[in-house]
From TrEMBL, chain A:
The lineage of its organism: Eukaryota, Metazoa, Chordata, Craniata, Vertebrata. This is NADH dehydrogenase [ubiquinone] 1 beta subcomplex subunit 4. It comes from Vidua chalybeata. It is found in: Mitochondrion inner membrane. The gene is Ndufb4. It is a single-pass membrane protein. InterPro entries: NADH_UbQ_OxRdtase_NDUFB4_su. Its main location: mitochondrion. The keyword Nuclease does not apply. Belongs to the complex I NDUFB4 subunit family. Accessory subunit of the mitochondrial membrane respiratory chain NADH dehydrogenase (Complex I), that is believed not to be involved in catalysis. Complex I functions in the transfer of electrons from NADH to the respiratory chain. The immediate electron acceptor for the enzyme is believed to be ubiquinone. Keywords: Electron transport, Membrane, Mitochondrion, Mitochondrion inner membrane, Respiratory chain, Transmembrane, Transmembrane helix, Transport.
From TrEMBL, chain B:
It comes from Vidua chalybeata (Village indigobird). It is a single-pass membrane protein. It is found in: Mitochondrion inner membrane. This is NADH dehydrogenase [ubiquinone] 1 beta subcomplex subunit 8, mitochondrial. Pfam families: NDUF_B8 (PF05821). The gene is Ndufb8. Signal peptide: none annotated. GO terms for biological process: mitochondrial electron transport, NADH to ubiquinone. GO terms for cellular component: mitochondrial inner membrane. The chain crosses the membrane at residues 104-124. Complex I is composed of 45 different subunits.
Amino acid sequence: MAWAPPPSAAQLYRPNRFVSLPAELDPATYDTSPEKLRAETERLAIRSRLKRQYLLQLNDPSAPAVIENPALVRWAYAKSQNVYPTFRPTPKTSFLGAVYGLGPLLFWIFVLKADRDRKEKRIQEGKLKRSPFSVFF
Amino acid sequence: SEMSKDMMPGPYPRTPEERAAAAKKYNMRVEDYQPYPDDGLGYGDYPMLPNKSQYERDPWYEWDQPDMRHNWGEPMHWNFDMYIRNRVDTSPTVVPWHTMSKHFLLFLSIMLIMFGLGEIYPAYRPVGPKQYPFNDLYLEKGGDPNKEPPTVIHYEI
């Protein structure tokens, strides 16, 4: 009878949302293939081009006071101004909007109302004295 | 700022040409560029980078910004401000996460159950009320010194 192969170290590790797989266990970081090498060289080319632009601005004697990072500008724009144009009401977004928008409101309405009703009932029954300064009960 | 509109993030790319243009805009390879799924949640064409914190990046490489471990012009993660080194850290742990959480939850639950049982079924030696000297501390409790205090005897012979 053939047993299944024992679980690999990466499978035993079980990376999740909070921890990632260490590079030593990740088969994608092992022996590189020509495609991976080409991909790495392309990434290196992009990175060196950007680094050259940055270092030219950094070591410029007539330097601008602040070297603007387009990636940062794009990130800030995407998070603040690009959300409304790209938002689209779908079943999922409407449901999430209802849950996050109305959910806490309704929850606290019911909790506070129930609490105050219970307190009023206890005051009417005489177990609790109505405080002299309170406006509500 | 001075950047033109086509340098800024835009809507979700539908055609391959739009994808290539978006990858070029974000300084990424076309094969690497993967936008967030088009759920209408407001991501647009922003690239979906792996959810790894800045802790995982090589500490010995000469980054342009060493504290952020970020290079100039490199696309930033959507949650970049969460993944900085002062905040969330997703670096691999020595012990796997499921083992750690199992140990912790087991310990916590066993301790809580034992404490709960101790509250429900308390176990201590028999105790009686505390006995004070000097006629139950008559003078210290403000008794009149001219009057005779009531005698309090705590023993039996």
